[in-house]
Amino acid sequence: MSNTKIDNEKMESSSVNINPINIEDCMLCGQCISRCFLHSGYPDMNPRRLIRKVALGKAQEMADSEFIWACTLCGRCTTDCPKDLKMDAIIREVRGIAWTQDKAPARIKEGIEKGKEFGNNVGMDGEEFVDTIQWLAEELEDEDIELPEGALEIPFDITDAEIFYVPNPREYTSNPNMFQTYAKFFAYTGANWTMSSKVFDITNWPYYMGDQQDAEELIRRMVDETRNLGAKILLSTECGHGFKILRKDAENWLNEKFDFEVLSIVELAHRYWKQGIIKLSEGILDKKITYHDPCNVGRKVGVFEGPRELLKHVSSNFVEMWPNRRHSICCGGGGSVGQNSDMGTKRLEHAIYKRDQILRTGADVVATSCQNCLAQLNDLQSRYEMPVEIKSVIELVVEAIELEHEQLHED
Amino acid sequence: MAPHTSKNVVIIGSGIAGLTTAKLLCENGIKATIVEKSSVLGGHTRKWSCKATSQCQVCNRCSLDDVMAALENYGVQYLTESELGSVVRDSAGYLRGVKISTSGSEVAEEIPSDALALCVGFETYDPSEKLLWGYGALDGVMTLADLDFVLDQQRLNDLGNGSEQTKIAFFQCVGSRDKSVGANYCSQYCCKAALRSAVKLKSEKPQWSVAIFYIDLQVSGKYASSLLGRATESGIELAQGVPGEIFLDENKKLAVNIEKNGTNAREQFDKIILSVGQRPSASTAILSQITGVGLNEHGFFESRTIFDPNRTCAQGVYLAGACGAPMDIETTILNASAAASDIISDLSGIHKGA
Amino acid sequence: MESSSNLTQLTSFLEKIPSALVLGKGLTASIAVIELKGKGFEVIQLEFGQAPGDELYCCLPGFDFEEYKLSVMQSVGQSEVYHSESIPMIDRDGAGFKVDIASIRDRRFDVLFFAGGLANRPCSNLDLAPLELFGPETKYSGESEDVALLMDYPEPSDSAAAMSAIVYALENAKNGGRSAVILDNVPVRHLQGESLYDSAKSAGVKFYRLGQSNPKIQDSFPSEGGNRKIWITLQDRIEQGSDIQIVCDRLFLVTGPDQKGIPYQINHFLGADLDPSGFLISESIHSNTFKSFSAGVYAIGNFTGNSDLFQIMSQAKAAAASARAYALFTNTKSRENILSISEECVRCLTCYRICPHMAIWPSVSPSRSQLNSIGTACFECGICVSECPRTAIDLTHFPQMAFSSFIEDVKNQPDRIVVYGCSRSAGRAASHISLPPDVVFFSVPCAGRVSESVILETLSIGVKGLLVIGCHHGNCASNNGTDWACDRVETVVTNFLLPMDMQGKLQYKTMAPNEILKMEKIIRQFVNELETDPQTSKYSSS
Ligand SMILES: Cc1cc2nc3c(=O)[nH]c(=O)nc-3n(C[C@H](O)[C@H](O)[C@H](O)COP(=O)(O)OP(=O)(O)OC[C@H]3O[C@@H](n4cnc5c(N)ncnc54)[C@H](O)[C@@H]3O)c2cc1C
Ligand code: SF4
Ligand code: SF4
Ligand code: SF4
Ligand code: SF4
Ligand code: SF4
Ligand code: SF4
To answer: Are residues A250 and A319 in the same domain?
Structure first.
């Protein structure tokens, strides 16, 4: 007999038990093992083993592991799970244990603290934000684009605008081009929109940590601001998890029905195109384009066809990656992995499935509709020197609109 | 043997269930009329192959031939390419006859009938629904039914890659025990069928390697010692856990990521055989409308109680075989014999029947 | 339904009321009695020995076993039941049976049912003191307890028993108890099996998968009083982590019926008709679910390795219907002359011993005992014909003459290749294939009819080759007719052909009735081998 101390009150010797969702339902079928892209990266761990450990009361062992920080919450492993488990939810629960024990990655912790204090994970105050945005817009005006006077002015805190647009902090820090692209999009489509000087971060890092309370708080603020402004559409930028939470979880979390619509800017673009607000000629972009389904936008929310219809229309040659849609392979940078500096470049090593999948298409451009994917794919592109360009769907739409315009003027 | 009574039982479906029911009824002096939708008799069983190695593996395929041969002695009426149109009941609600419509003829023929046995069987699951298994998309991914065809055609070599090192895998519970495809039940036949097929492959091609990926092997009782014993003796690898994705690796071979001996590993295979489950036949819904027999949550016919599996709540209507629940041939024979037994008891009135 | 008219309609053709002898006691026997009575049988039940109760499990939740048993007992009603210390001598009496017990010695039964119960098998490799065997009488008390149920250890458990154990675990968990199920494979029998597993899991029953190493089981008694605790240390096969410890108050071992409890006399009576684990009736498609090879003999329940109540109910129904058909057949058909036994018989009893269908039975009389054929039980396989040392037996529909005239025919067609094929398999398939020109196919009732002398006679006329095709081993409708043929071919090859380097010209192959392409292949290969073997063409009759 081993010398394990036995607590007679307990059936198992280990003591940390969590009961996230339906973890007991797992029938150990093993399907999830094959579908996780971390399979070779963590040879001694896989989704099923993790679930098994948690179910057997060994959640602490997992909370102390690196695997839970490498997992991108992509949910691919449990797509088609025979018992409908949701790996992303389980991992968030386990991360929650680490979080309450103060074992979370430093960079994420910092982001969450800033979020609590400033309402955004980069710690920018409202004034600075408005200045930055306006400066970015002014820069745009210098470009040679023909638009009516004032079309590029950024509306702030306008009540009763149709659309309340919430950006990702990348747009006013590391990747200002993206903001400029969206600003042009609004201008070209003549949208009736506004931004808020108080709520301007679509991201929700507490969500990554299983920190439900703080996650809800961020959503609460966004919802309240939408109501304050009287907007009919709460428009998410191209941000996977931010959009997914608003669309799929927010009503449940807050336990209320929204009287406004939650849309992603890609859905809006698709709608405008269908309505004829945007006119694009078929095949205007002479490029072989493929589409990467962001896990949150695709698998979790179910936005598959909108972006494809747009891309198929503007591109002279659209190709699919295999597998795609619900079974799309994660870019490797989601679920806080992209922001987690502790993970170093592992996210690039783990993403070889994505790399190979892209290379097999022979595409010139990989389009996607999540800025996190965009950043990860760009890093992948340079790390593996892939002969592709990485573009967001809206970037391509704006590019197409401009090309359309140019050609009109040449005639 | 000439029938001894004027009783006639109409049987819908000529699978092993329908034929077995007919055989036992005839042996007991009751006439049977078999109504079959397709143009051939025998149902699914006809399609399966013999799995015998140097010895019979009791797959029960050939019991179909025995039943059919036995039936040749009894003047059973076969109506092929025919379906049940409606049931005829007297004013008291007792079953008196059925109307059968045969393809090509305008009018439905009325046949007197003292009992009606529903034996319409099942449908095989189409695994292309679960995209990541690549059925229909990846060369070399096939179903157990496809394998049966290859075996039946004596074309085993088609499975090999030309070298000695052919690797074959079976994936169990494909389309069974899977809520994500709406089948939260075990199909009951496939563990045994895969084991037999694997043993057959190993016996014909001892140098090939054969693996069965399973969740829980449903082999107990009689077959545990013999079938499982044969499988392990012949060197079949039994691996717990079914891979959820098949892809082509850089050598254009079928590959799966799995866990092996506690560590993640990748394996290549030349052929992967999906053990597809049994689904309720599309006929059950239609016949439920016609006969008033209910369907259970899975879409199979519902019996009167779960403890009375062959009687239904519709007077004079019985069910047998895989249309009531997925089952293998052996169980189907048992189940259909029990159905015939119920019919005999009820018709002779010794037992209080439906 | 107008039962009375139906009754007469359906039973009138049974010239006399059929009768059945049910050997066994307990629930299985009662179920058999009910089903037989429902088919119009007069039933006598014979309880024997100290037979334990049946191990029958209703493996789905929500089933009131006690109530069910009560209803069975009520339906059985008044039955003629006899008791005997051990199993009496059972004898055939024509197509029926007699039993050597004073009060019923003169009764004749059309059919015989073995419907007894067996105890659960004990755990063979464990000295596990704190273990209780999980039986059908193991009922959940209603009080929450910490309980562990160990199954598939060391060999797979009976799935119905295992599922009943899961029901127990579920009920305990629902009552706030802690249940641990330790197993290899989760049993999900029946349409409802998966949802049972689901509900057990969601009620909090913990499932542990047996790993490579055996679980360690120990118990202890706290020094300061209190209940005994059982400690189980194991590794979960899936988790593969550090040891897991389960502490519980009770530990059940779930096994299955113990075939060793089947009385020797019954085994003996059924001859070789046992499955590989020793349960009654073979693992063959001709004798498995309820019907034995012996005409008129049925077995159900634990004796057949079955402990699933649902399945036993079906077995009983099916067996009763089949028994009724058998009684009807034997009472209406006279098949007395299906087989003849001549004066040449020296009563060596070979035929009696080897007949797989119990269709030859000696009648012992002080003056002169003799062997009787039981026409309605006889399959006309001809195994006895082939093995009788005195060639005293012959089949009426397939007499020795048939062989002789076939051989005579072939004699005039030199260089023929002869194929003797069992009518069940090769015979049926032969009509679907076209044979090579010099091949003649001759359908025999059973490969077992191809005797050594037939083989030698055929070879002696100068055929190019002789192929005997039987059903696959284990699939012979007469149990071992095909094995007889195999042995005889081997004997002839070793004794007559091997010394002359001619073994290739006589072969034995097996096939199933549905293996039409296989038959083509077998014959093609045989023909090819004959053609490429220079030895065979030189062979001529001696
Ligand atoms: C790939 C595969 C391999 C298998 N291998 C084995 C094996 O090796 N051993 C084994 O024991 N079991 C095996 N099984 C299971 C076996 O096939 C079933 O147990 C058996 O076929 C059930 O018989 P059945 O008569 O109930 O149904 P079926 O065989 O499905 O017969 C039903 C019949 O009803 C007819 N029918 C349907 N609808 C109507 C209608 N509306 N009107 C009239 N007729 C209708 C059909 O045309 C069919 O002829 C296998 C199953 C699969 C899928
Ligand atoms: S796919 Fe679902 S049921 Fe299967 S092992 Fe993974 S989590 Fe468990
Ligand atoms: S990374 Fe994705 S596939 Fe892997 S465990 Fe996490 S959610 Fe599952
Ligand atoms: S039962 Fe199956 S394996 Fe056995 S002979 Fe018949 S078809 Fe072949
Ligand atoms: S019999 Fe085996 S393979 Fe088939 S569904 Fe059941 S567990 Fe799965
Ligand atoms: S085998 Fe022949 S000799 Fe021997 S008892 Fe039978 S009939 Fe008589
Ligand atoms: S022919 Fe066969 S069944 Fe008939 S008595 Fe002889 S051995 Fe028995």
So the answer is: no
In tens digits, chain B (354 residues) has pLDDT values of 444 567 999 999 999 999 999 999 999 999 999 999 999 999 999 999 999 999 999 999 999 999 999 999 999 999 999 999 999 999 999 999 999 999 988 889 999 999 999 999 999 999 999 999 999 999 999 999 999 999 999 999 999 988 888 999 999 999 999 999 999 999 999 999 999 999 999 999 999 999 999 999 999 877 888 899 999 999 999 999 999 999 999 899 999 999 999 999 999 999 999 999 999 999 999 999 999 999 999 999 999 988 899 999 999 999 999 999 999 999 999 999 999 999 999 998 644 433
Last residue of a domain, one of A103, A138, A171: A103
Number of Cβ within a 10 Å radius of residue B323: 29
Tell me, what's the ipTM?
Answer: 0.95
Counting from 1 in the atom list of ligand 6, the atom nearest the Cα of C360 is 6
Instruction: Give, in degrees to the nearest 5, the angle at Cα C349 between C368 and C111.
Output: 90
Give the gap in angstroms from C-alpha A391 to the nearest C-alpha of chain B: 27
Residue A8 confidence (pLDDT): 32
> How far, rounded to the nearest angstrom, does the alpha carbon of residue B46 sit from its chain's CA centroid?
10
**Cα(C351)–Cα(C372) distance, integer angstroms:** 10
User: Which of A246, A271, A296 corresponds to the end of one domain?
Assistant: A271
Residues C504 and C506: their CA atoms lie apart, in Å, by 6
A232 located within any domain: yes
Distance of CA B94 to the CA centre of its chain: 31
SS3 B333: helix
The CATH number linked to A313 is 3.40.50
Other beta carbons less than 10 A from residue C177's beta carbon = 22
Closest by CA to C154, choosing from B217, B241, B225, B192, is B225
Q: Which CATH number is B125-276 given? A: 3.50.50.60
CB–CB contact A31 B242 (8 Å): yes
For residue C393, the surrounding DSSP H or E stretch is strand C393-395
| pTM for this predicted structure | 0.94
Q: Which domain holds residue A351?
A: 278-410
Does a structural domain hold residue A12?
no
**DSSP 8-state symbol, A171:** G
Q: Report residue C302 CA to chain centroid gap.
A: 12
Shared domain check, A258 and A292: no
What does the pLDDT read at residue C8? Answer: 41
Spell out which chain B residues touch chain A, with contact meaning CB-CB distance below 8 angstroms: 130-132, 173, 177-181, 213, 215, 240-245, 256-259, 262-266
Average pLDDT for C243-271 = 90
Token pair for C503: 């073994």
* Distance from C-alpha of A345 to C-alpha of A340, rounded to nearest angstrom: 10
In order of start, what are the domains of chain C with their CATH numbers?
3-119+258-332 (3.50.50.60), 131-254 (3.50.50.60), 336-393 (3.30.70.20), 400-538 (3.40.50.960)
**Same domain for A330 and A265:** no
Strand partners, A122: none
Of C101, C115, C480, which Cα lies nearest the Cα of C266?
C115
Do residues A307 and A355 share a domain?
A: yes
Task: Please write the tens of the pLDDT for every residue from C446-485.
Answer: 999 999 999 999 999 989 999 999 999 999 999 999 999 9
Residue A323 touches partner B, C-beta closer than 8 Å: yes
Q: What angle do CA C123, C125, C126 make, to 5 degrees?
A: 75
Query: Are A78 and A86 in contact, with CB atoms under 8 Å apart?
Result: yes
User: According to CATH, what is the number of the domain B8-121+281-348?
Assistant: 3.50.50.60
A14: pLDDT strictly greater than 50: no
Please give the number of the atom of ligand 1 that sits closest to the Cα of B124: 53
* Residues C357, A365: Cα–Cα separation, whole Å: 77
Residue list, ligand 4 pocket, CB within 6 Å: B 50-52, 56-62; C 285, 472, 475, 512
Ligand 7 centroid vs C485 CA: distance in angstroms?
A: 15
